[in-house]
Amino acid sequence: MSGWLNPTLNPQAFREAYEGDGWVQIPDLLAPQIAEALADALERATPWRLVHSGPAGEPIYVDAAALEPLHRSELQARLQETGRRAAAGFAYLYYVYPMIEAYLGGRDPGHPLHRVTEFLNGPEFMAFAHEVTGEPVVKVDAQASHYRPGHYLTLHDDRGDGERRAAYTIGLTREWRPDWGGQLLFHDAMGDVTRGFTPKFNVLTLFKTPQWHSVAPVAPYAARPRFAITGWLRDDPPYAAKPPPAR
């Protein structure tokens, strides 16, 4: 998937900020037509699943087809329990499309996000990310996220086993007001917010891991959804080159 990156971007121009601050934002990441097509796919053609954290922080998925027959009281009980976990520690609630899992599992053949998975794990993007961060990039984790009113991701540091060399988000939110919440927030050891980024369109954010951060809850009056592609730059063994045939 070559030719997707904005050809005017100079990765070395962003490296100093990344090394000094531990994060950097890169506007106009993708060629405009690519960014618009990707946003269209997220807005109109993605089979989202609700995801919320379980007791140990593990993801619990609810497919769209299962949401409708799920009794309102059962769903409400799940969300209340997730909220109690959020009050005490790490928890999350939003819509997700797990891009790596879907790609390797042969799900949704022909979906545009499969081409994005290939782009993120291709030489163009991985070389760019390496030049900005200085980290070895063997593969790129990826999920698409869709936040609506009441969705959130509480404080965490993305700590892994050493394979997570940096984290990234690609913002694909066309319109957003800062009072709608949904900001990517960075926190110091005292819990104070050191920096916050409002959802934007066609903007790459790279940041070092581990580093404390959260996504602020989306306000109940937010009039637009918050879309992003997120994941980690990793240095563990690469994914399979191609997905198995779709069943």
Give a brief outline of the structure:
This protein is of the alpha+beta class and 247 residues long. The protein contains 7 helices and 13 strands.
Residue share in β-strands: 25-35%
Shape: globular
CATH superfamily: q2cbj1_9rhob like domain
**CATH topology, what is it called?**
Jelly Rolls
Q: What is the CATH-assigned architecture?
A: Sandwich
Structural class estimated from helices and strands: alpha+beta
Helical content class: 25-40%
Enumerate the spans where pLDDT stays under 50 for 5 or more consecutive residues: none
What's the main sheet like? 13 strands, antiparallel
Distance between the termini: 25 Å
**CA radius of gyration:** 18 Å
Q: Class in CATH?
A: Mainly Beta
Topology as H/E string?
Answer: HEHEEHHEHHHEEEEEEEEE
**Nearest-integer average pLDDT:** 93
What do these coordinates show?
This protein is α+β, with helices and mostly antiparallel strands. The chain has a single domain, classed as Jelly Rolls. It is built from seven helices and 13 strands. Strands 1, 2, 3, 4, 5, 6, 7, 8, 9, 10, 11, 12 and 13 form a 13-stranded antiparallel beta sheet that branches. The protein starts with 11 loop residues before the first helix and ends in a 13-residue tail after the last strand.
